[in-house]
User: Fold this.
Amino acid sequence: MNPIPHTAAGLRVVEARDADEHAANLTNWEQCYDQTTCGTFHGLLEEIQLPGMQVFRESTSQGMRQSCCVWPDAMWFGLPFSADITRINGRTAAPHSVLVRPGHQEFELVTPADYTIFGLVVRQDTLRSAAQALGFDVDWSRLQAAEILHPSAAALKQCLHTLSALLQPDHGVPADPAHAQTHALEALLPLLDTGVVDAGVRDSFSRRQRIVAAARDYLLAHHDQSVTVPDLCEQLHVSRRTLQYCFEDVLGMTPVQTLRILRLNGARRDLRGNPSATVRDVAADWNFWHFSQFASDYRKLFGYSPSATPRTGLH
Assistant:
């Protein structure tokens, strides 16, 4: 993955009608989105690039499970603009929290329907230089390990106001992009200077995360087979009750719901990426043998039939 270009660009606005298409629109991110709620998908991305920073606002109409990774030597900060909770790596982030992850490390977000989040990706050297120049004392080691920050309400409100102004269609990037970047950093740094970092993840929660990740990996590796909840329990050496609790705690969904959503999203992804494949072949490859039920479930989740899936030839 290449670093974000160090040149200014104007406001970039991109709409998408497919979750994977939308995931690919965010510049220099590696992402994979699974839709989790039922209905037609609509995504909107508004993005600007500054000398050492990317600023964006992302809106999604449906619930998503997102696997994300930002460019190396950077830090990502997510500011949810929603009254509903967000899950980051399985941890629940209440409204008015700030999410944070270093670059080149994969992380998972679970977001609800009708969701908007502001995001900043900042080169680490840019962030450190700005903190030193502006007199902010940041605990960099704690920040690197953090997932959730709890800033003051005033600092968060000011930062959201600044980012929203930068992303206004009639505003765009000022003639001097360095000036715009300074404004953004001046709004961001108070969140890091005064924010309270959540305590580290408990060992018990880490175990639940590992169980969910192992279950998902097993399903995807055996997607052409009939994988059931008892199969997962046997493979992972856990009881059904434990598996249920792990999934509900980490993803907010049951194992049965998750298996179905992963398989339907996998089928959609293969239909989009393989124009020559038939719908029946893809359904069978994801272990959907009752074709009418597959078509019904697919339409319910994505808002269109399998045969109406755009065949782009791109994953």
Q: What stands out?
A: The two ends are 17 Å apart (CA to CA). The longest strand covers residues 115-123. The mean pLDDT is 89.
